[in-house]
């Protein structure tokens, strides 16, 4: 089984089988590939079901991120909407989750939640820089902030307990 499955709401709903095979559906709603057409709230129950079925962590990115092991759920509401305009931002987040899990000593729910907090805080800090004018400049400064962020920064933002 995988240790962690991370995706946007539509990806998690599709993985749960709730989407069926028709993409998009006749009504024009449902799964449409990798772009999320559903909210993370819509996918929360699907994520919990997947986590229970595969005995893993499921992390759903969205306006509110949800990380679950099937019984516990951590919500993370930091970050910036501009991340949705950056190709591969989710892939970068997945890599950060893997890095955190590598040193987590088996505490994968906490590791993934910390990775989401780190990524969201870095995005907020990067977007607040005056030289960031849109997705292109945010991408560059996001990488800088991912590198620069410290546990103290996360603690000051109320993201580290």
UniProtKB/TrEMBL annotation:
Its EC number is 2.7.1.50. Keywords: ATP-binding, Kinase, Magnesium, Metal-binding, Nucleotide-binding, Thiamine biosynthesis, Transferase. InterPro entries: Hyethyz_kinase, Ribokinase-like. The keyword Cell cycle does not apply. Signal peptide: none annotated. The keyword ATP-binding applies. One of its GO terms (biological process) is thiamine biosynthetic process. It catalyses: 5-(2-hydroxyethyl)-4-methylthiazole + ATP = 4-methyl-5-(2-phosphooxyethyl)-thiazole + ADP + H(+). Its cofactor is Mg(2+). One of its GO terms (molecular function) is hydroxyethylthiazole kinase activity. It holds the Pfam family HK. It comes from the Eukaryota. Pathway: Cofactor biosynthesis; thiamine diphosphate biosynthesis; 4-methyl-5-(2-phosphoethyl)-thiazole from 5-(2-hydroxyethyl)-4-methylthiazole: step 1/1. This is hydroxyethylthiazole kinase. It comes from Cryptomonas curvata.
């Amino acid at each position: 089984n995988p240790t962690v499955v991370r995706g946007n709401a539509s990806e998690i709903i599709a993985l749960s089988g709730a989407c069926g095979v028709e993409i998009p559906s006749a009504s024009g709603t449902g799964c449409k590939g990798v772009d999320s057409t559903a909210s993370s709230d819509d996918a929360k129950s699907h994520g919990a079901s997947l986590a229970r079925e595969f005995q893993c962590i499921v992390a759903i990115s969205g306006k509110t991120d949800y990380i679950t092991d099937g019984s516990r759920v951590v919500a993370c509401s930091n970050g910036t909407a501009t991340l949705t305009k950056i190709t591969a931002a989710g892939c970068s987040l997945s890599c950060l989750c893997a890095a955190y899990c590598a040193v987590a000593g088996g505490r994968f729910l906490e590791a993934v939640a910390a990775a989401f907090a780190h990524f969201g805080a870095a995005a907020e800090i990067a977007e607040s820089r005056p030289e960031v004018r849109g997705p292109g400049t945010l991408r560059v400064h996001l990488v800088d902030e991912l590198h620069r962020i410290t546990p103290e920064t996360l603690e000051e933002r109320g993201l580290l307990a």
